[in-house]
Amino acid sequence: MSMKLLRVLVLTCSTRPGALGPAVGRWLIDAIAPRAAELGVELLPVALGDLALPFLDEEEEPASGLHRHEHTRRWSATVDAADGFIAVTPEYNYGMPAAFKNALDYLGREWAWKPMGFVSYGNTSAGTRSVQHAKQVVTTLRLVPLGATVALRIADAVEDGRIRPDAAREQAAIGVLDELARLAHALRPMRERARAGSGAAPVPGAYARALTPDDAPEVLVLQRCCWLEEALANDTLAIPALEESLEQVRAWLATWRATGLWRDGRLLGMVRARRVDDDWHVGRLGVVPDLRGQGVGRWLLREAEAAADASCRRIVLATGARSRHNIRLYHSQGYRTASSDGATAFLAKPVPSDGGAGEPSGAR
Fold first, then answer.
1. pLDDT at residue number 152
2. CATH of span 6-196
């Protein structure tokens, strides 16, 4: 499971003055907040009544992503930044509140591949028919409804406008959060793939995105995998990519322009680059062993080279002095050996360039 922080919106769906929804929402957040901290989940309460969304008034289809009104753009940004949702909803005439349906209808891609849990309340059915109605709608938006739910029967659960303490009820709420967190992590590759668009990638189903410090665990694993081959070729383990700790990887991810190629949550390859004086430094070019020879390294190197500042004098990289395969590939892509200290070979080529590299075990 990824260790990235999850943002979960707790949606209070009733807009009726004096409704029980705010009290249920407060109870829910109080009940699950300790567990949320353990799971790395940020809970954000959102009352639909505070959004000031009129009945859908956008001219374009929500799926287009073209939002003319400021209230729509604010709602879009809020939902887009979330990883999952818990809807706190009453039941009105066997269905969900109109405000809830309207808020869903405003958007399209912003909902996709995110889990939604439900905490319902009502009288005879405890709001469960509202949840069944909502599930028909949310699945069309590619939201993924949870199996775990909490249903509060008002006569049993409410006293003086507050939710009565009940250990079993609170444990059920924690169960909703646990399932939501698992699904949100599992669906993250789907969300990232959707945001990446349809740009060309060297591996079917893969997509590229910028790496951040949150990706440090995956980067650390890839480094240990890719640079072992270079260690064997150079008869040394004194290679930074093999020696770095998780915190050291996290630190350089914050300062380098790093790109990763992903598929189904797996980091397939990466490269980093940044400007140093008049040079554009490229490094940590690595590809998982089972995908070498398929153009992944060349593609990643082109991505790094294309980002070079036009005012840079040259692109430089380094590899092991005895990494003959790497050096041969870099030479074939326009790089020339500039110097060597016996352990490391330093290579360079002018900017701009339209070359690329192969699938080396790693540029340092």
1. 96
2. 3.40.50.360
How many helices (H) and strands (E) the chain has is answered by: 12, 14
> From CA 71, how far away is CA 120, in angstroms rounded?
27
Percent of the chain with pLDDT over 70: 95
- What torsion do the CA atoms of 30, 32, 35, 41 make, to the nearest 10 degrees? -100
> pLDDT tens across 45-84, in order?
999 999 999 999 999 999 888 999 999 999 999 999 999 9
- The neighbour count for residue 305, using CB atoms within 10 Å, is 23
Q: Is the dihedral of CA 60, 65, 69, 71 positive or negative?
A: positive
Burial class (CB in 10 A: 0-12, 13-18, 19+), 311: exposed
Which residues, at least 6 apart from 51, have a Cβ–Cβ distance to it below 8 Å?
A: 71, 74, 75, 103
Helix (H, G, I), strand (E, B) or coil at 297: helix
Cα–Cα separations (whole angstroms), residue 182 to 118, 147, 217, 266, 336: 16, 12, 18, 17, 48
Q: Which residues contact 270 (CB under 8 A, 6 or more apart)?
A: 211, 219, 222, 258, 259, 260, 261, 284, 285, 286, 300
CA dihedral 26, 32, 37, 39 (to 10 degrees): -140
Indicate the pTM of the whole model: 0.75
Structure tokens, 353:
């360039």
- Which among 181, 197, 107, 175 is positioned nearest to 144, based on CA atoms? 181
Average pLDDT, the chain: 91
Class of domain 207-350: alpha beta
Give me the sign of the Cα torsion angle 310, 312, 317, 321.
positive
Which helix (H) or strand (E) covers residue 196, if one does?
helix 167-196
Tokens of 198: 């349809």
What gap in Å lies between CA 194 and CA 24, rounded to an integer?
33
Domain ranges of the chain: 6-196, 207-350
- If DSSP codes are grouped into helix, strand and coil, which group holds residue 91? coil
Find, among 58, 156, 145, the residue nearest to 108 by Cα: 58
Q: Is the separation of the CB atoms in 361 and 343 below 8 Å?
A: no
At 122, which amino acid appears? G
